[in-house]
Amino acid sequence: MKNVIKEHLKENYLLTKMSNKNKTIKLTDKDLILADKLLSLNSIANTDQLKNKIIYQDIFEAISYLPEKFIDLLILDPPYNLNKKFEETSFKAMKSEEYEKWIESWFVPLLKKLKPTASVYFCCDWKSSVPVYNVLSRYLIVRNRITWEREKGRGATKNWKNCSEDIWFATVSDDYYFNADTVKTMRKVIAPYKNNNGEAKDWFVGKDNTAYRLTYPSNLWTDITIPFWSMPENTEHPTQKPEKLIAKLILASSKENDFVFDPFLGSGTTAVVAFKLNRHFSGIEINKTYCLYALKRLEMAKENPSIQGYENGVFLERNTLLKKLSIQNDENLNSTYAL
Ligand SMILES: C[S@@+](CC[C@H](N)C(=O)[O-])C[C@H]1O[C@@H](n2cnc3c(N)ncnc32)[C@H](O)[C@@H]1O
Q1: What's the whole-model pTM score?
Q2: What angle separates helix 269-276 from helix 288-303, to the nearest 10 degrees?
Q3: Which of 135, 22, 114 is nearest to 72 (CA)?
Q4: Going by CA atoms, what residue is nearest to atom 3 of ligand 1?
Q5: Counting atoms of ligand 1 from 1, which one is nearest the CA of 59?
Q6: Which residues contact 154 (CB under 8 A, 6 or more apart)?
Q7: Which of 123, 222, 294, 301 lies 20 to 30 A from 268 at CA?
């Protein structure tokens, strides 16, 4: 009997603990008032009118009201070529050639909105990657393809589990901004090399007694965590991008006060990260609930402008924060890394 009670208490204790740790952002009745901040365009807007505003509208309606040449950095995360439900709207998978035409139908009008020095990042999965490349290479200079590891791949028995996504990088011209120094990653050094004087070669020992090196990022990213319930950036949006991922794009390819635009804004990740990094932003989203998430996240960002996985100007390896917490709890080790 005693054991049964113990089990019962343990179960309930764990359940209580779990729910306390769930940091998913929820909308309440109080948040509905935020909708007053949303824009809907019915005449040509100027850049100042768009600054730091979210447009609650269909991209196909809003696009012709956007001013010309106002975008420094365009981040594109449209529905992938999959059947997907987004609140009141849904996207239906189509043949690859049709998907390419669908992309062109909004991408070509957007080209006029780019500054001659602008950069473009286009998110996709393996299946949409080819049509996305085809469209980009027709109109812009394609410079690279980033592949990032999605930890949360869906298991498959008749195929390889899908655990990666692509982001194509393109620019309007050869005159573009790129700053690799802003996106260095702190990585563990497996074999720390010393020179003949016994000095560390480009690495240092952190306060947790581990050797680290700051490295320039490649086009293969394995340090990204998809938002989940214990992360304070998490919402109910089904395809929310991690702030850390968008932060890398924004830091490398824009300067403070540049204009970052995202016409498929979803839960607002691009807007929130742009705000946290002192860039101007705007974006379009067709579903009101997602617009409200974006606005709520922007309010939260005023209180807490930190980006999980990005500290002291460097990106940390995946789940380092958790590791750091356990280090802080260990009295023998001195909390944080020596940077
Ligand atoms: C892949 S999600 C973007 C997720 C976003 N990056 C985030 O981090 O939350 C694509 C978004 O495009 C929106 N969308 C789809 N069709 C649209 C349209 N015609 N106009 C504006 N937004 C649209 C969907 O509602 C969805 O939120």
Answers
A1: 0.89
A2: 20
A3: 114
A4: 266
A5: 20
A6: 161, 162
A7: 222
